[in-house]
Amino acid sequence: MVRIIGIVSGKGGVGKTTVGLNLGAALAHHLKKNVTIVDCNVTTSHLGLYLGMYYCPITLNKVLRGEYTVEEAIQQHHTGLKVIPASLSLTDLEGIDVTEIRNSLRSIFDKNDVILLDASPGLGREAVATLRASDEILYITNPYIPFAMDIVRNQEIVNEIGVKPLGIILNMIHGKKYEMNKKEIEELTRLPVIARIPFDRNVHKSLALKVPVVTYKPNTLASREIIRLASDLIGETYEFEGALRRFLRKLRLR
Ligand SMILES: Nc1ncnc2c1ncn2[C@@H]1O[C@H](COP(=O)(O)OP(=O)(O)OP(=O)(O)O)[C@@H](O)[C@H]1O
Ligand SMILES: [Mg+2]
Description:
Blueprint: E1 3-8, H1 16-30, E2 35-39, H2 47-50, H3 60-64, H4 70-73, E3 75-76, E4 82-84, H5 101-105, E5 114-118, H6 125-133, E6 136-141, H7 145-161, E7 164-173, H8 182-189, E8 193-198, H9 201-209, H10 213-216, H11 221-234, H12 243-253
Parallel strand pairs: 1-5, 1-6, 2-4, 2-5, 6-7, 7-8
Antiparallel strand pairs: 3-4
């Protein structure tokens, strides 16, 4: 049965889209699962942009307006990940009802192991619609009090709706003393921290190249943690290539 997982945060800019698309690429490319990621951040959509999909004639907006089927909106990414982008145009917000997202995806439920929903930040109408469309929630935060505090507020709504929080992904860790650590975040939010992704320049580089970091640099620290999280989520183990084997493979390529 498909798992519909919302990628959610209290504050904006914490890395939802980045972690979401990389989690999706890790599941699709490294773990060979059927995965679709949907840009539910319809007012400030970035997902297509981050994957180099600049012009997508059929978007989630058009599906929500009933102009096209959801199958027609799917873009196939070379990693195996399927992507449903939202429109980049504000005028395209007319006539769409974000509370219909889950219904609009029903026909692809049986074709996917996981559907990831990239949410907008905060607790506005759009963000709450994504919470309601999800079965499970992955919170993303940066290691600072206001960011973690917003998860506590978010949890009030998640509890009310009855969606299952899987835990917190701590992203963009610099390893400084003034950052909140795993234990502090867990005490504040009463949720487990299930992944710790460092601030990693390869994430920026991969975004500039419009490719997921988990395929661009699968052995960089951020990628390894995202791939580990992906395998944990589905209860499988992923064997990372050891340094020696990697070295030998590179030699053979030369
Ligand atoms: N682990 C990381 N290391 C370095 N840079 C990162 C990391 N994670 C995310 N970033 C960078 O942080 C910026 C914000 O990321 P992103 O757009 O994914 O956040 P978001 O939570 O989706 O934002 P919004 O709330 O606007 O939707 C991007 O420039 C991205 O490259
Ligand atoms: Mg985003």
